[in-house]
Amino acid sequence: MSESRFKANLYLRTFGLTKVPMILFCWPSVVQLDEKRCEIKIPLTWRTKNHLGSMYFGALAVGADLAGGLIAVKLSSQAGTKVTFVFKDMKGEFLKRAEGDVHFACETGEEITAFVGRVLATEERQNIEVPITATVPSRMGTEPVARFVLTLSMKRLSSK
User: What is the reported pTM?
Assistant: First the structure.
């Protein structure tokens, strides 16, 4: 595992432990995180399964949340500027049962980079729609099992 993936996974575990325990409970891992793409994997385990043996939609929401927000969090952290961020809405389309480890991919890193630049340039709240695709590579290759669109809302905090 590369040092940057190690740091990203350490950040996820720490954030889950201290801020959002549901993240830690699902035990996600960073597969890829760079300026263009974020990919998160959540394993299908007793913790994330529903009564049908596929991934519970709550665990799917955790994966989409992380894939959609991690690039923005990384960029704002690198800038050394405090921001608030939240997803203000989420649309989900569940296409097939997720009967294996699920990979959540956000391919809009360049748009998110420009968005974070706008956020850091003003104290006005900014919003961007972030598409996420969920796949189960071990069973279905690149065929989507779910698609999400989350509206990421961020605001730079006043330096007062």
Answer: 0.93
Whole-angstrom Cα distance, residue 129 to residue 152? 6
d(CA 101, CA 44): 5
Contact between 60 and 92 (Cβ < 8 Å): yes
| CATH number for the domain harbouring residue 77 | 3.10.129.10
Q: Which segments of 43-149 does DSSP mark as H helices, in order?
A: 57-79, 109-121, 137-140
What is the tally of structural domains in the chain? 1
Which tokens go with 149?
């669109």
pLDDT of residue 123: 85
CA distance 144 to 133: 6
DSSP conformation class of 50: -
